[in-house]
Design brief:
The chain is of the alpha/beta class and 255 residues long. The chain contains seven helices and ten strands. Helix content is 29%, strand content 16%. Helix 1 crosses helix 2. The chain is globular.
Length: 255
């Protein structure tokens, strides 16, 4: 595991985008896993810049998103379909047919979850998966108590997660209670993980995930199992870590 601490959110976002861009340049048909929420927005802005200014080509890239709310149509401004198109896809040359986001309005949600797993397998698996972390240590919408071997599934959101996400809605009553999410087992099968965290409100979760035991109580701690993880955070998110880590990435020295 490589842990990189940057001074600012902008610097950590730039580094994350550079890592993803390198993978796409090496493998134009790369399969990339993407996340939503406020944390990856800076990374997406930088990927858009690299595409426009440096010609990063997304025309053969295939994407799979981590999750989606149940019951929100794709054109709802709070849906993750809408989020991804507004904040990334419509600004780059990705082919719409190559974009995959869980279907939260499918008539048969269980079948849609199973088909999502099949789609990932049919594309040869995910080359790099971008992740955020919740204040309660969740990754994707795998809340505390989720199986570390779980697959894409329907999950009930905890009240804490609904409260955290209420800022995007007019009221907490509008926040969906259910979601479709990649499971932790699915996430761990990606060939590389890039985990992002910023802000002091993520510091406890980061410390527990990276320095604590691997436990279902902190789902993000499962990344300790993975052979190729880069964790990028700002100083605020790193404030509760007890060990010394890199301030610059190294392709040779891994923590």
């Amino acid at each position: 595991m490589e842990i990189v601490i940057k001074e600012t959110y902008e610097e950590m976002s730039q580094l994350a985008a550079q890592l993803i861009a390198e993978i796409i340049r090496r493998k134009p048909r790369a399969v990339i896993g993407l996340a939503t929420g406020s944390t990856p927005l800076g990374t997406y802005r930088e990927l858009i810049r690299i595409h426009k200014d440096e010609g990063l080509d997304f025309s053969q890239v295939v994407s799979f998103n981590l999750d989606e709310y149940v019951g929100l149509p794709n054109d709802n401004e709070q849906s993750y379909h809408y989020f991804m198109w507004e904040n990334l896809f419509k600004h780059i040359n990705i082919v719409p047919a190559n974009v995959h986001i869980p279907d939260g309005v499918a008539a048969e949600l269980k079948e849609a979850c199973d088909n999502y797993e099949i789609e990932i397998d049919d594309h040869g698996g995910i080359d790099v998966q971008l992740l955020g972390i919740g204040r309660n240590g969740h990754i994707a919408f795998n809340e505390p108590g989720s199986s570390l071997g779980s697959r894409t599934k329907i999950k009930t959101l905890t009240e804490k997660t609904r409260q955290d996400n209420a800022r995007f809605f007019d009221s907490i009553d509008e926040v969906p209670k259910y979601c479709v999410t990649m499971g932790i087992g699915t996430i761990l099968e990606a060939r590389k993980l890039v985990l992002l965290a910023n802000g002091e409100n993520k510091a406890e979760a980061i410390q527990a995930a990276l320095e604590g035991p691997i436990t279902v109580s902190v789902p993000a701690s499962a990344v300790q199992f993975h052979p190729d993880v880069t964790v990028i955070m700002d100083k605020a998110a790193a404030s509760k870590l007890t060990r010394q880590y890199h301030t610059e990435p190294s392709h040779l020295n891994r923590q």
